[in-house]
């Protein structure tokens, strides 16, 4: 009687263990919260505060890119910290508005806040569904040339879109080509104050970025610099890290000083909604300026293909960043859990008037590994400012995002009146300096040197993105897919003549290639005089389908009619099993090429 009881207790313990593991997989916070300590708290507070001071000015600037009132940037910047703390698996990633997502959002909603909020909900639902269905592998079909072409074009579009704010021009279209024309057409309307302030902000941001990049490692051994030198280095690092916040504060104070004397020297942000956003469901309909009600179905129909592009680009950015920092800081992430985290962030964010958010893109990053800085370039993707700052400041857990979110909330609650005086030229400078590193012209030379054909999807994506950003991605993916299908339909084939014709397939054999292979065998063997036996080397063939079976059956009949052999060699067990199950008449096969050639030679002598 004790034995069944013991077995039942073992099953219950196993069930509890499995349920606990599943719960930790769904809520990663349960894996690190029991080990949380005071040291981690100190580092997370420092990292969260530092990232918060960079997030606020960037969020304001990216709202301008999305064509939305600046407060929507802050609405979108705080929910990610709370959600990601519970669901995220990377300690370094921060979620919030980015330049690329802001541009994509504007391309779909045209600067209409209600539709931007609804877009966040729909994107979140799509992203969370992909995570629950384990469909993250679909991201693998977006190739690196497509991503590079898109990010380069997006950086140019975003950067040039801010030139009008640097110049103080009004009523400039948002589309790239009309914007290019009217910027030069209205050059006589340039405001000197905006130009001077904008260029000064750009110069200061570039200078501070260069200073931070030039800082060497801060070692703590006996050969390290003096305490004064280390203190000075850390002060420069802190100032350079918070450069966006410092520039915005300084420019706002300058604008306030001129406005106090009644001198409207700069174009300022103006009135903004004060206080925290209300928690309410996102709108499912909209009303146009002339009072026409637009239904939910009409809004979704208006989003078109962009409704698929934006969720995928958001996932692509966030997953790439998480994987990059996981490799560099020696931990692992769960890609599907990351999809769930960003999806839930966008879903819940839509209830506080947020537009779609993700991680951040960029070109290169300095990361902190075991207390030492090292410069590293991420091969496929590289991360941008907020996530890099999070890592540099020694963040220990995703809880640093909570501190960042609190900083954003305090800004919304207390500082909104001060945002009235932020010059648009200053925000434009922040955006331009943020997206400039994404224009990676070196990649063109690398692709030309390594694989010239990759330039085709790159150029298609790059050029079409100036027309419509979502069309650029769709066009690039289509070209990449066509190139991929062409390699499947036209596999490399090597032929040699040794009395018997030997045909070696350089890659697998599937239905798109069946007709092509059949045509080669007909023209090179069956239509010769006299017809030749053929040995088909299949050691690269790992799968076979019904179309290939039909082609082989037809070939075997024609070889038999002309009294020659078609011999298959190097068949893998699963392929041989399928061929035997098909019961092909006249099927001949051998374990290796030499045996197959010998069989063909015997037929030749006969």
Characterization of the model:
62% of the residues lie in helices and 7% in strands. By secondary structure, the protein is of the alpha/beta class. It folds into 2 domains: 36-442, no CATH class; 493-605, 2-Layer Sandwich (Transcription Regulator spoIIAA). The strands form 4 sheets. It has a 5-stranded mixed beta sheet, with helices on both faces. The longest helix is centred in the N-terminal third of the chain and has 28 residues, at 38-65. The model is unreliable at 219-223 and 361-385 (pLDDT under 50).
Question: Could you give the topology of this structure?
Answer:
Elements: H1 2-26, H2 29-32, H3 38-65, H4 71-75, H5 79-87, H6 99-109, H7 113-132, H8 144-161, H9 163-167, H10 176-185, H11 192-214, H12 227-241, H13 243-260, E1 286-287, E2 293-294, H14 296-303, H15 306-328, H16 335-349, E3 361-362, E4 365-369, E5 372-376, E6 382-383, H17 385-392, H18 400-419, H19 424-435, H20 442-450, H21 455-465, H22 469-489, E7 493-498, E8 500-505, H23 511-526, E9 534-537, H24 546-561, E10 566-569, H25 573-582, E11 588-590, H26 593-605
Parallel strand pairs: 8-9, 9-10, 10-11
Antiparallel strand pairs: 1-2, 3-6, 4-5, 7-8
């Amino acid at each position: 009687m004790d034995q069944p009881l013991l077995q039942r207790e073992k099953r219950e313990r196993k069930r509890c263990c499995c349920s606990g593991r599943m719960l930790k997989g769904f809520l990663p916070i349960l894996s690190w919260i029991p080990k949380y300590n005071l040291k981690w708290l100190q580092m997370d507070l420092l990292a969260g505060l530092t990232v918060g001071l960079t997030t606020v000015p960037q969020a304001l600037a990216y709202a301008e890119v999305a064509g939305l009132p600046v407060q929507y940037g802050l609405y979108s910047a705080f929910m990610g910290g709370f959600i990601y703390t519970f669901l995220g698996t990377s300690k370094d990633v921060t979620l919030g508005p980015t330049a690329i997502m802001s541009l994509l959002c504007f391309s779909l909603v045209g600067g209409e806040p209600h539709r931007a909020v609804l877009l966040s909900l729909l994107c979140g639902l799509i992203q969370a569904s992909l995570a629950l269905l384990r469909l993250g592998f679909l991201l693998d079909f977006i190739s690196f040339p497509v991503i590079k072409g898109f990010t380069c074009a997006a950086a140019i579009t975003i950067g040039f879109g801010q030139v009008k704010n640097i110049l103080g021009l009004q009523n400039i279209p948002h589309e790239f080509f009309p914007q290019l024309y009217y910027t030069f057409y209205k050059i006589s309307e340039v405001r000197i104050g905006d130009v001077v302030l904008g260029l000064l902000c750009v110069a200061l941001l570039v200078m501070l970025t260069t200073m931070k990049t030039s800082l060497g490692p801060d070692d703590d051994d006996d050969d390290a610099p003096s305490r004064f030198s280390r203190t000075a280095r850390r002060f420069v690092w802190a100032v350079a890290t918070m450069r966006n916040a410092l520039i915005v504060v300084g420019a706002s104070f300058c604008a306030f000083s001129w406005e106090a004397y009644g001198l409207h020297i700069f174009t300022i942000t103006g009135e903004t909604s004060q206080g925290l956003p209300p928690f309410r469901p996102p709108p499912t309909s909209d009303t146009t300026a002339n009072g026409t009600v637009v239904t939910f179905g009409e809004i979704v129909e208006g989003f078109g293909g962009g409704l698929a592009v934006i969720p995928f680009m958001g996932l692509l950015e966030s997953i790439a960043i998480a994987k990059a920092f996981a490799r560099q800081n020696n931990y692992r992430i769960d890609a599907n859990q990351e999809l769930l985290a960003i999806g839930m962030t966008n879903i819940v964010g839509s209830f506080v008037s947020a537009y779609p958010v993700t991680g951040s893109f960029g070109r290169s990053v300095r990361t902190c590994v075991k207390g030492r800085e090292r410069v590293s370039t991420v091969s496929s993707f590289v991360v941008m400012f907020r996530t890099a700052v999070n890592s540099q400041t020694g963040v220990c857990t995703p809880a640093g995002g909570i501190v960042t979110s609190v900083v954003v909330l305090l800004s919304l609650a207390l500082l909104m009146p001060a945002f009235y005086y932020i010059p648009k030229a200053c925000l434009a400078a922040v955006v331009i300096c943020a997206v400039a590193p994404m224009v990676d012209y070196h990649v063109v030379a690398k692709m030309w040197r390594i694989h010239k054909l990759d330039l085709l999807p790159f150029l298609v994506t790059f050029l079409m993105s100036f027309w419509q950003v979502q069309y650029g991605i769709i066009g690039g993916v289509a070209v990449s897919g066509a190139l991929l299908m062409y390699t499947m339909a036209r596999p490399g084939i090597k032929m040699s003549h040794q009395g018997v014709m030997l045909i070696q397939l350089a890659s697998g054999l599937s239905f798109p290639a069946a007709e092509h292979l059949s045509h080669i065998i007909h023209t090179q063997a069956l239509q010769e005089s006299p017809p030749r036996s053929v040995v088909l080397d299949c050691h690269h063939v790992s799968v076979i389908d019904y179309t290939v079976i039909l082609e082989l059956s037809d070939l075997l009949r024609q070889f038999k009619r002309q009294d020659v052999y078609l011999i298959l060699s190097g068949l893998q067990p699963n392929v041989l099993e399928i061929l035997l199950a098909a019961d092909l008449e006249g099927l001949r096969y051998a374990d290796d090429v030499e045996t197959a050639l010998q069989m063909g030679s015997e037929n030749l002598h006969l």
